[in-house]
TrEMBL record:
Its cofactor is pyridoxal 5'-phosphate. It comes from Terfezia boudieri ATCC MYA-4762. This is phosphoserine transaminase. It catalyses: O-phospho-L-serine + 2-oxoglutarate = 3-phosphooxypyruvate + L-glutamate; 4-(phosphooxy)-L-threonine + 2-oxoglutarate = (R)-3-hydroxy-2-oxo-4-phosphooxybutanoate + L-glutamate. Pathway: Amino-acid biosynthesis; L-serine biosynthesis; L-serine from 3-phospho-D-glycerate: step 2/3. Belongs to the class-V pyridoxal-phosphate-dependent aminotransferase family. SerC subfamily.
C-alpha cells in the first residue's frame, strides 16, 4: 500500500496523497458535472478556471506581481522542449530589437548577427544538453560557454567555478544567458542567483537570464525579476508529467520577428508550438492542453499556499537534505558524497556512492536491496552516473526522510 513505501525518485516524483485522492474522484466526476476532468473540453469555462487559477497560484507562490510584466504559460514537451524554445524566442527577441534599432535595415542586423551568442553555464548534464540544442539549432559559432565546471574539476561535474573565472560576452552580443538552477543528475545547485548575471534595471543591453528550475521550482523563494524566462517541467515539485510551467517576461512576447525576417537572416523559425507569443495570446490553449495535469498542479500549489508557502517548504527542504548529507558525511567508511563543496550541494537531489566493503564486497547492491525490503524506494542514481541519489522534493515528507536516514545509520553501523 501507499503508506508502506517511501519514495525518493528523481522525477516523476511523489505527489501528496490527498491531492491524488481528490484527483481520482475528479477523474470520474468533476464537481458533480457527471464528467471526469479529463473528458471536459479544454475550452470550457471550467477548464479555463483551472488554468487561470493554477497560473495565479504560481505567481502568488513566487511573489510575482500581477502588473502584466510577466506571463505564465503552460506548455507540453517537458523541460527538453524548452531547451529549444528559449533559443528560438530569445534569439528572436535579440533580432527584432536589432532590427528596430537599425530602422529595419536587415543588412545591419546581418552584420551584428555574426557576434550574437547564446551563453551557457555548464554545471551538469542538463545544462550541457541545453547548450547542445542551441548549437544544433544555430551552429557552434553562436554558442558561448561561460563556464564548464568539468574543466575546473578534473573532468567531472560537482563544482561551480568562482565568478571571477567566468567568460561572459559583451551584453549587446548576448541573446541569452542560461543556467540550470539545480542539476538533477549531478546534484549541484546554485546557492543563489549569480551576481555576474545581474543587470542594472532599465539597462539597454540587459543580459537575459534563463533559469531551468525543473527540479527545484517552488522549493525556495526566487527573485523572478532577475530572469527573462524561468521554466520547470511539472513532474518533480509541481505535479504530473505532461505540462511545463513557463514564466516569461512580457517584453519578450511583444518584440518578435516575422518568419520572413528570420528566413532572410538564415535563422531557424520556431515551430508554432514553441513560439511563446502564440501560446501566450491563446492563454496556453493554441492546441489541446492536458487540463488534468494543470488541475493537479493547481491542487498541489493550493496546498503549498495553505501550508506556509515557499518559505515553509524551503525550511523543510533544508532540514531534509541536511539530515541526509549528515549521515553520509558522518560515515565515510560506507558512504562518499558526490559533491564535496558544501556550498553547491543540491537540497533536492543528494548524490552519494558506497565505498567498497573491507573484503571487497559490493556494498552498493546490498544497500539497495535492503532499502527496498524496507520500502525505501527510488534511491538509485541516474543510469549515467550510478551510485545513490535521494531526491527530497516538496511532497517527500520529513518523516519519510527520517526513516531513510535511520536506515542509512543502521546500515553503516552494521558494516562496522
Ligand atoms: N532539466 C532538468 C533540470 C531536469 O531534471 C530534466 C528532467 N529530469 C529536464 C530538464 C528534462 O525534462 P523532461 O524530461 O521533462 O524533458
Amino acid at each position: 500500500a501507499r503508506e508502506q513505501v517511501s519514495y525518493f525518485g528523481a522525477g516523476p516524483a511523489r505527489l501528496p496523497t490527498s491531492v491524488l485522492a481528490n484527483a481520482s474522484a475528479a477523474l470520474l466526476n468533476y464537481n458533480n458535472t457527471g464528467l471526469g476532468i479529463a473528458e471536459h473540453s479544454h475550452r470550457s469555462a471550467l477548464s479555463s478556471n483551472i488554468l487561470t487559477q493554477a497560473a495565479q497560484y504560481f505567481k502568488t507562490l513566487l511573489n510575482i506581481p500581477n502588473d502584466d510584466s510577466y506571463t505564465v504559460i503552460f506548455m507540453q514537451g517537458g523541460g527538453t522542449t524548452q531547451f529549444s524554445s528559449v533559443v528560438y524566442n530569445l534569439v528572436g527577441y535579440w533580432v527584432e530589437r536589432r532590427l528596430r534599432k537599425h530602422g529595419g535595415d536587415l543588412e545591419k542586423v546581418r552584420a551584428d548577427l555574426k557576434d550574437m551568442k547564446c551563453e551557457y553555464l555548464l554545471t551538469g548534464g542538463w545544462s550541457l544538453k541545453a547548450s547542445q540544442e542551441a548549437a544544433r539549432l544555430l551552429g557552434d559559432e553562436h554558442v558561448s560557454i561561460v563556464i564548464d565546471a568539468r574543466k575546473a574539476n578534473g573532468g567531472k561535474w560537482g563544482i561551480i567555478p568562482e565568478e571571477k573565472d567566468w567568460s561572459l560576452v559583451e551584453k549587446k552580443d548576448s541573446a541569452l544567458a542560461y543556467f540550470c538552477d539545480n542539476e538533477t543528475v549531478d546534484g549541484v545547485e546554485f546557492p543563489s542567483f549569480p551576481n555576474a548575471l545581474e543587470s542594472a534595471e532599465g539597462e539597454e543591453d540587459e543580459r537575459l537570464v534563463i533559469g531551468d528550475m525543473s527540479s527545484n521550482i517552488l522549493s525556495r523563494p526566487v527573485d523572478a525579476k532577475k530572469y527573462a524566462v524561468i521554466f520547470a517541467g511539472a513532474q518533480k515539485n509541481i505535479g504530473t508529467t505532461g505540462i511545463t510551467i513557463v514564466l516569461i517576461r512580457k517584453s519578450i512576447l511583444d518584440c518578435q520577428p516575422s518568419p520572413v525576417t528570420l528566413r532572410a537572416l538564415n535563422l531557424p523559425i520556431p515551430p508554432i508550438m514553441m513560439h511563446y507569443p502564440t501560446l501566450a495570446s491563446s492563454s496556453s490553449l493554441y492546441n489541446t492542453l492536458p487540463i488534468f495535469d494543470v488541475y493537479i498542479a493547481g491542487e498541489v500549489m493550493s496546498q503549498l499556499l495553505t501550508s506556509g508557502g515557499v518559505a515553509a517548504i524551503a525550511a523543510a527542504a533544508e532540514r531534509k537534505s541536511s539530515s541526509v548529507y549528515e549521515v553520509i558525511d558522518k560515515n565515510p567508511t560506507v558512504f562518499t558524497p558526490v559533491i564535496t563543496d558544501t556550498r553547491v550541494r543540491s537540497r533536492m537531489n543528494v548524490c552519494f556512492r558506497l565505498v567498497k566493503g573491507k573484503d571487497g564486497r559490493d556494498l552498493e547492491k546490498q544497500f539497495f536491496e535492503e532499502a527496498e525490503k524496507k520500502g525505501l524506494l527510488g534511491i538509485k542514481g541516474h543510469r549515467s552516473v550510478g551510485g545513490g541519489r535521494i531526491s527530497c522534493y516538496n511532497a517527500v515528507g520529513e518523516e519519510e526522510v527520517a526513516k531513510l536516514v535511520a536506515f542509512m545509520k543502521e546500515f553503516a553501523t552494521k558494516q562496522g
